[in-house]
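Could someone model pyridoxal-5'-phosphate with this protein?
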Amino acid sequence: MTSSRRNFLTAAGFSLAAGAISGSRPRLSLALGSEPSNNLQDWSIVREQFEVSRDYIHLSSFFLASHPRPVREAIEKHRQAIDDNPFMYVGRHLFEMPGQIRASVAEYLGGKPEEVALTNSTTMGLAFVYQGLPVRAGQEILTTTHDHYVHHEAIRLAAERAGATVKKIALFDDFASISEEDIVRRIIRTVSPRTRAVGITWVHSGSGLKVPGATHRAGDQGSQRRASRSGSHSSDR
Ligand SMILES: Cc1ncc(COP(=O)(O)O)c(C=O)c1O
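Reply:
Sure, complex below.
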């Protein structure tokens, strides 16, 4: 599946089957009330999904975002169901819902549900990933100069703890001259036998840049290069 923010909004129209919740109120279904439009190429249709004021140009959505209509409706249905019968609702969904969320995320990212971990924040997720990496003294973690502070800090702390080093490279010199080939070339030429991990953010919140497919291609080429150098595919060098 091609991943994009627009596809994600479409995919967000998931429907969760709910057990019947009895009571004086009408039965609640978690199926969303309105289907998101398929025509997400049309900006006015996308814009309609958001209730943010039209009196402003909102440039802070990377920080605090307004939910699109399907998300608002899903939140409202969960809230009503919890008001209706908190114990039964939470009891019924506590264990199955994380699995459904992981399956949706895996479909969006192109991975497997068991490869997805749910965390409270990006900061927590990055800390888990880097603190869990078996990095050894003398090895190196490669990242970019464009990455977010919390990514840099997660790498710094993990590297310090292991006695490893950190290398940061620029993926491009200016926005006008960004090219996928050049980004891949810069990553590949920096990866060495000491490189234990390469950490690259896909969508840069500082600029909105979505790094063009480079991470996959660099990963593929990098593992081929390592394989040809070392003659093996060992994942824990
Ligand atoms: C690229 C990137 N990484 C990490 C973070 C930190 O995210 P969180 O607040 O979820 O820990 C942000 C927040 O804007 C971000 O844009």
